[in-house]
Write a structure and sequence with these properties.
alpha+beta, 4 helices, three-stranded antiparallel sheet, single chain
């Protein structure tokens, strides 16, 4: 089972349909993930995928970001420009007081890990679990859907209703307490400081 295909953008994050996600059954293209799949998480082990949906990014979302592999080749991982990627860097503790930080993909051009790809307009896949997770996509750990239910309901009420159908606790503010980011998020200036 999969969630609905939204006709528009309801979140600034998302991975492309061709992005390979690590699961209990091996790497799976995001487009082939199903509700109930066991997805590898940074916390160790696997988490059950509770909802997976698809949307189309709007032009105002910016240029998708393609992962460049350690061998210099462009890979299949493609992220929305604001999708957060976990960065482990020797200077993180000194600069930001944390061993790991999150950084929007669009700020990782300076690191050489991502390049903008204006030649594609991918469908974006959104992965939702019982809690906020970092999931393995290719060479990176990237965040799962952070369910801002007010925004989702404003942009796409049918998708909001479907998500609440699968995770009823998301109908209340208390239910959102399981979806808190656990790492600092870098802004453009901080990313330049780290990679500049």
């Amino acid at each position: 089972m999969r969630g609905r295909r939204s006709s528009g953008e309801f979140t600034p994050s998302g991975v492309s349909a061709n992005t390979r996600v690590e699961t209990l059954r091996g790497p799976v293209a995001a487009r082939d993930l199903q509700i109930g799949d066991q997805v590898k998480t940074r916390r160790g082990g696997f988490a059950t995928l509770r909802w997976v949906g698809t949307s189309r990014p709007l032009e105002r979302a910016g240029t998708p970001m393609r992962r460049v592999g350690s061998d210099g080749r462009e890979g299949t991982t493609l992220l929305a420009p604001d999708h957060l990627v976990l960065i482990s860097h020797s200077q993180n503790d000194l600069l930001f007081g944390a061993a790991d930080v999150l950084c929007p993909a669009k700020y990782l051009v300076a690191s050489g890990h991502f390049v903008p790809d204006a030649n594609v307009s991918p469908a974006l896949v959104h992965l939702l679990f019982d809690t906020y997770e970092l999931v393995k996509c290719g060479e990176d750990w990237v965040e799962s859907l952070l369910p801002d239910m007010d925004q989702i309901r404003a942009e796409d009420p049918e998708t909001a209703d479907e998500i609440v159908g699968y995770l009823p606790r998301l109908s209340s503010r208390q239910g959102l307490a399981s979806y808190l980011r656990t790492h600092p998020v870098l802004d453009a200036r901080e990313a330049r400081l780290l990679f500049g």
